Queue: 2 jobs
Job 1
Amino acid sequence: MSPQQRLADAIARIPYASFLGVRAELKGDELTLVLPYSEHLVGNPLLPALHGGVVGALMELTAITQLAMSSKSTKFPKTIDIGVDYLRSGKPLDTYARAKVIKIGRRVANVQVEAWQNERSQPIAAMHGHFLVADEEKTPA
Amino acid sequence: MSGENHYGEGQDVFERVRAMMQWTPQGRALGLEVTKLEGAQVWGRAPYKAEFVGDPETGVVAGGVITTFLDQLCGMAAVLAMREPAVVATIDLRIDYMRPATPLRDVLAEAHCYKIGRNVAFVRAVAYEDTPDNPIAHATSTFMVNAQRPMGANLREKKP
């Protein structure tokens, strides 16, 4: 199975990713998550603008998928905390997100994500987060 | 903020705030509800649905659902803190996850706008199934006040 296929399978296993309509693109070891525009993702229908929570969700999914790819574990990492900076209003366009793993420790990973639409140099949001990649070994009582 | 008049008081405020939630397509898609208001505080519910699961092995709802729910509820608390309702835009949203949400259970949350100025509103929120002392997640957020832009602003091309 090709890495692209394995990735597509991993995304397809997440019901919430299908709810959003997220798909993954892999070029070499560079992962991009794509969120095609859809009316149900809108937060403000007058502008219209994507819901900030949806943009945050896309970036969190990107971080989790990137980490799942980087580590050998078959389990999904667990989110400890995320901080989302909103930089521009999300237009009714396709949105892209790419994650950079800053550090994977024994238990915690530190990840940064950026989301953009037309221009990579004009991000609409940035996220940094910490994720639990491995549980402390459970010691028998 | 006690003793001051703000949007979160009066007769039909509850109906107006419910309408605000229904006005947002993503709020409707997630089935988010407003359950209670008190001053600049708002309580809500995000119903459990199988399609919102983030980890198929555990059946736990995706973090993104809680992110959207808390962002929405925090924004509403900011609007409730105003004398006159106005559009807000999220500047920054931080969420700490204490534990996974319990599978098959609805998530409840409460948000409180504890400070609002001319430009910025500060809001805290907590998500839980039963009571806030057993939290799933805490959120801290800031919002731009009066972030009103013309209708269809996001459909126009950028000025050259």
Note: The first helix of chain A runs from residue 3 to 12.
Job 2
Amino acid sequence: MAVATQSAPAPAARARRRWLPSSIGGFAVWVMVGFFFVNLIGVISTVVIDSFGTTWFASWLPDGYTIHWYGDAWADFDLFNVMLVTAQVAFAVVALSILIGVPAAYALARRDFPGKRLVSLLFLLPILIPPITYGIPLATLLYKLQLAGNIQGVILANLVPTVPFVVLVMIPFIEQIDSKIEAAARMCGAGTFTIFVRVLGPLLLPGILAAGILVLVRTVGMFELTFLTSGPGSTTLIVVLYDAVFGAGIRAPQEVDAMAAIYTSSMLVLLVIALRFVNPTQLVTRVAD
Amino acid sequence: MSAAAAGSSTGTGALTLSRRPSLRHRLADRGIDRMLILLVPGVAFLVALFVYPFIYGLQLSLTPASGGPLASYQEFFNDPYLRDTIGITMWLALPAALLNVLASVPIAYRMRGRFRGKRTLTTLLVVPITLGTVLTAEGLIKYLDRSGWVNKFLLDFHLINQPLLLVHNYWGVFFSLVITGFPFAFLLVLSYMSGIDPSLEKAASIMGASWLQRFRYIILPLLAPGLAITFCLAFVLAFSVFPSANLVGNPTGDTHVISIAAFHAAFEQFNYSLGSAIAMVMAAVMLGIIVLVLMWRSRLYKGASGGKG
């Protein structure tokens, strides 16, 4: 392992060479990472291959290939309506969490006030605490208020982690904007609303876009809260997938896999779009910063 | 900043001739002005849908349909089937979180510098997190099945004689926790590791410290606070395992985890009091572990040498 450190070539040369394993330790690390990815690819490709297979029991690959499972799944699970609901929920959550989150982020980024730590904690906790923990009391409350079991309930529940998420993503974006610009706009007679729409809005657009895409990915992938608060006609794709696997028996497993493949591909499309605007680590959490 | 604050409070206060500035100015000096109205919708929303449900749940758990205020908690702790969920969940979450965090350290140490393909690698690692536990579980069911690729590979290479039982038991859930939890822990550890100033290590290297010494006396102490946070998050994530415990586990047996018990009580038996009580126990256990880890962390070195956190 010391081999890697003995020779210290020029930084540029080292940067070029770094990606090749240079010692036993490095080799072991790459084997671990490789093992992880082999299994990950195995898991995902099993789903995708099975969704195209006619029958697949004990062989390495299915006996034949077909695409009719996709049509069957589309019809049996009423996927058109499911996708519609998913899109409605996702876009409502994105729009509302930005409307609520961006102003709050602005106030938190620009002002130092007594109790700021408490407010920051309030915006941090829903991201740190896993959804199932607060989801059960939340869903109980929403059912009692007769807000759950429909699309409004799903949207409300999904907003709980996404509003704080928008706040945390936006704070650094806002902090980097020089507050003199706003002061100058005020000197020229702009009101708070005008400043927001005509000065800050355009400057914050990249940040808002990034936050919106991250919220979109998180909402489409959010299982727990949607599962707890949705009723017939308000389930999103991931919950329908869960129900199909958990309550399986009658339907062909390939059909379920076809739906899983649809889910995977739509998530990957969203992910590819998201990664054009944001850093991969931002998808995980902002807590590290 | 205070200039902007004064600018936003218009007129009246500035004209008062009393010796003390107006209340509005004094508040503005402390950072309280009309801009804080922007905070109101966000705070009100979270109080209504995050803080209040917790209080409501706590109150609900203390008002069972029959018996004294603690009857729901008694029911949970007296019934071994329910009580054991704590142990079962711990036994899943602690090893999974430890493995995820500990495996991340050497890998992140190797990859802390810049290298070609780093962004591709982090991008690939985000994929399992984005896909979520439900899809992972769905894939694992066939992948780890008796006739799945893993067993087929091991049998064909004569590494085993009998197919291994890897799904619908403890191991299925464990693997799903590693597949979604490892990238999460790794990306956090990597960002902490990248926050450590490389010149510290270089200095030690010049002074003749070996690879092991540099890791033990420089990287590890600076990384430890970040590791504590990462472990907390990884543990909490694993402790709240729900969909995969149902899908690739044995939800009535050895993966009858606490979230399943809470869900079952609240939304299948409609015993909201018991369901809330179990959710409160779940939160309390997580909090307990986090407090323990953070107490341990507070004993560690906290300095300004770049280890973020």
Note: Chain A touches chain B through 104 residues (CB under 8 Å).
